[in-house]
Amino acid sequence: MAEVLDQARSLIEKRLKELDDERKRLERALAEMKGTKRGPGRPRGSSSGRRRSSATGTKRRRRRRGGTRAEQALKHVVENPGIRASEIATKLNIKPNYVYRVMSELSDLAPGLAMASRTVGSPQIRVRGTVGGNLGSPSPAGDAHPVLLAVGAVVEVQSAARGTRTIPVADFFTGVKTSALEDDELISAVLLPPATGPQQFAKVGTRNAMVIAVTSFGLALHPEQGRVGAAIGSAAPTPLCAVEAQDYAAGELTDLWASHGELPAGVAARFGELVAAAARPIDDVRGTAAYRRHALSVLARRSLAWAWSER
Questions:
Q1: Closest CA to 257 of 300, 228, 231, 230
Q2: Structural domain spans, the chain
Q3: CA 150 to CA 221: how far, in whole Å?
């Protein structure tokens, strides 16, 4: 028994050291990017600033001027195109990692990304995770990647030595789990345009939640430009755009953007076929290449029909 306890203690101490090393690395990275040392933050469980009713012990809510924080955040985004999550946090006087709590109403500005984000892991993972983190480990199965490709997002990266540069997300993925990010760079922002038309995200997994995608698909309609964005995840060495499918759909819909006519018969089916043809899947433990192609054709066909019905 003593040996078992000693072994368990040793494993725990080893893991604690690894976590402490990781914390120090992150703090050094943040210090290099911001140019200042990080000070201690207020403990999450602190009672500072909280007031409770002495009679009931319940929190006393105050009416906030200017609407709820979600409404204030939405107003900032509408009035300041390109505003960052960190800037919203500053304006609302909240911690940057609390922004997720007030941004539910922003899903109208990035509906595809909102859909994809809701499929990531568990609620705990979604609270701690970020789009930048999803990109930083550029897995072909990353849930945010197809949507970012479909909307034409741009990745902003920073280096302490060389400053800031931007990378179109289509150029960000360079190979299997590799990216254009240099060794001394960190992702500082992901810039995406507000939606001008319907967007969709769909994925297939081995179960309904907390699952790596067997394959996934992102779609964005851009009526003002007469353009369709369509991108594939988990069915090629990297996430990629289905270029032929995009061009086909845009051509078929040319005369329908203004008239809001019905989606022509057969267009969605052919669109699905072209999306499947753009994939370069493999057989693995989660699914066969043939299954991935079939699933993609179904996801693409349905997504186009759903999006067109929302226009």
A1: 228
A2: 199-310
A3: 9
Q: What is the Cα 222 distance to its own chain's centre?
A: 19
CATH of 199-310, one of 3.30.70.20, 3.30.390.50, 3.40.50.300, 1.10.287.3510: 3.30.390.50
Both structure tokens of 230: 């369509």
Nearest-angstrom CA–CA distance, 279 and 299:
13
pTM for the whole thing? 0.76
Q: What pLDDT does residue 258 have?
A: 85
Successive 10-residue mean pLDDT values, the chain, 311 residues: 82 84 79 55 38 46 65 80 78 70 69 89 80 91 96 94 95 96 92 92 90 96 96 97 98 90 93 98 95 98 96 82
| Residues 161, 184: Cα–Cα separation, whole Å | 8
Both structure tokens of 11: 């494993």
The residues facing 202 across adjacent strands are: 217
Task: Report in angstroms the alpha-carbon separations of 55 from 58, 61, 134, 221.
Answer: 8, 15, 46, 55
**Burial (CB count <10 Å: 0-12, 13-18, 19+), residue 105:** middle
Q: Residue 187 is which amino acid?
A: I
Identity (one letter) of the amino acid at 255? D
- How far apart, in whole angstroms, are the C-alpha atoms of residue 95 and residue 81? 21
